[in-house]
Every structure is written in C-alpha cells, then in structure tokens.
Amino acid sequence: MTRVEWVTISCDVCGSADHRLLFVKEGFRHVRCETCGMVFVNPRLAGHLDFQASSGTGSMGDDSLSPPQRQRLRKELSSMEPFRRLNRIMEVGAGRGWFLLEASRAGWETWAVEINSSALDYLRKIPVNNLVVEPAEEFHAPAASVDVVRMWDVIEHLESPRRAVAHIHRVLRPGGLLRLATTNFASLSRKVNGPEWVYLNGSDHIFLFEPDTIRKLLADAGFWDVKIRTRSFNLRRKLYHPEHEPALRWSLWRPFRKLIDETIRLTSFGHQMIVTAVKPE
C-alpha cells in the first residue's frame, strides 16, 4: 500500500501561517488565511507537482473544436491585437494547444509552458515555436520578450501562484497583457453547493481564488489595471475519490438556469473569473 505524504505550507499570497479550517472534503483540509483571506488546501500532497506532470487535468479537453469554439478563440485573440508589438504570445499551461494553434494561424510567434506528459504529446504535433517543458513557477524565457501571456484554468493547480505570476511579470514586455481564468470561490454556485461543489478537488485544485485575493496577488507582483469579470452558474456537484456525482437537490433551480447565467454576468458571483492585468510601461 502506497504511503501518502503531506506537506504543510504558509499562505502563498501573503506568507502568513495563520489560517482557519473551513471544511474537509475527501481528506483534504480547505483553510482560509486569517491575514489576506486566501483559500487553499493545507496540508497538501507532497507529490503534487509529480501528479500534475503525470496525470492531473493538463490534457483534459476536447479532441477537436467546434466552429463556435474556434470562433470564441479567434474573438479572444482579436481582443489581444492592441498589445501586439513583438508578435510573441505565451500560454502557461497550454494543455492540448488549441489556443496557440489559433494564435499561430493569426501570425503570432507562439510559446508554450507545460509539464503534463499527455499535453506535451499534443503540443509536439502542432506548430508551437517554443515549447518550454518546465513548471510555471520556474520556467526560463527571456525577460520582456512577449506581448501577451495567457493562463487558462491553471493557476489553481500550481504549487506557488505567487512565483508563477512573478515569472510571467518578468517575461512580459512593459505594457504587456496577462489574461487568466480560474474558478471563483466566492461564486453563488459554490455557496449553493457547499463542499460538494464540483471544483473542490483537493488533489488537484489546491488554491481557490476570489476577486479580492486574485487582485492582491497580481498587484503585489507589480501588475496594474486589473479587471475582473465573472460568468456562469454551475449546479454540478461531484466527489472525486471515487469519482461520483451525488443526486442534485436543487432541481427547482433548473428552469431558471439561463436567466441566472445572464444575470450573474453583471455581478462578481459567477463560478469562473476572467482576469486581465497589465505590466506597467
């Protein structure tokens, strides 16, 4: 029987060792920092980085993209055009590479930072100009060398979001753009579902950001003009060990799902945060 090893950490955002227990899910303690409010898994699995490289969710995604999905990526790339000066774009945690493939088609020089073995198999089959096989917390790339860095549903998996964001700040040119997405612990769907919320998976999602904590992380790293919008209301609940979806108790919400989705975009309570930040000139 394999012995599970744990490591206890301080808050990655502010460094405080003071925290309080929120709940335990499937053996993973989810705590909130008493100083800055960051929510994280503590202790966490000692082999977390190895898990991300060999398994994790790095290679999850569609085997192919539908026309509407490709259109959404093209629209996202179009919004990045004002930042194109050096013609270099980087994705940290590139997964299967769909975004970088569209960026390449739009004429960008593409950089991918990835460690997941399955994802790397996909990335080696598409035209990525520079493939960096190193963790987000310590990847090597020239300073001030890229216009845009994208990090999509990745930061919650990292051992140190603070170090990763510092590396991103270094490689972005002055005036460059960071665009990231992550789950929102302050979302309405998390509050409705409680500890059974689908995105609470302590072996994988070890940092759970809210608007205030992601804003603090980016500001402390030297970013400014931080903008946050949220979207979607997700009723799904899930247990991961073993994988199992409990019966949904909130069936009365279902007829109002679309209305809730449209309304929640106007608030800070959507289940996903879309964040943009700029490195000062």
Key features of this structure:
globular, alpha/beta, Rossmann fold, 281 residues, 4-stranded antiparallel sheet, 7-stranded mixed sheet
Describe the secondary-structure layout.
Blueprint: E1 6-7, E2 19-25, E3 28-33, E4 39-41, E5 44-45, H1 48-54, H2 67-80, E6 88-92, H3 98-105, E7 109-113, H4 117-123, E8 130-132, E9 146-152, H5 161-171, E10 172-183, H6 188-193, E11 207-208, H7 211-220, E12 224-231, E13 239-240, E14 243-244, H8 257-264, E15 272-278
Parallel strand pairs: 6-7, 6-9, 7-8, 9-10
Antiparallel strand pairs: 1-5, 2-3, 3-4, 4-11, 10-15, 12-15, 13-14
Cα Rg: 19 Å
Which spans have pLDDT < 50 for at least 5 consecutive residues? none
Mean pLDDT: 90
What is the level 1 CATH name? Alpha Beta
Supply the number of helical segments.
8
Q: Fraction of residues in helices?
A: 25-40%
Can you name the CATH architecture?
Answer: 3-Layer(aba) Sandwich
Bin the strand percentage. Answer: 25-35%
Q: What is the spatial order of strands in the main beta sheet?
A: 8-7-6-9-10-15-12
- Main β-sheet description: 7 strands, mixed
Helix-strand string: EEEEEHHEHEHEEHEHEHEEEHE
For the record, what is the CATH homologous superfamily label? Vaccinia Virus protein VP39
Termini separation:
54 Å
What structural class do you assign from the helix and strand content?
alpha/beta
Query: What global shape is seen?
Result: globular
**Total individual domains:** 1
- CATH topology label: Rossmann fold
